[in-house]
């Protein structure tokens, strides 16, 4: 998962709460950092995404592959 995919997944899943969650929610699974701090520290976006999903009780079926662009139509 790339950083852009992570940010798109957060926006798609959490909508208007995404900015708050990225900047204010402290996640124990990423060392007691906010998602924004974890990204800045160089942690893999996929690990941050999964920690955020676990903290916010996102159903398993919406956790994997989120934020990916659809393949281009030829």
From TrEMBL:
Pfam families: DUF3046. It comes from the Bacteria. InterPro entries: DUF3046. This is DUF3046 domain-containing protein. It comes from Microbacterium rhizomatis. The lineage of its organism: Bacteria, Bacillati, Actinomycetota, Actinomycetes, Micrococcales.
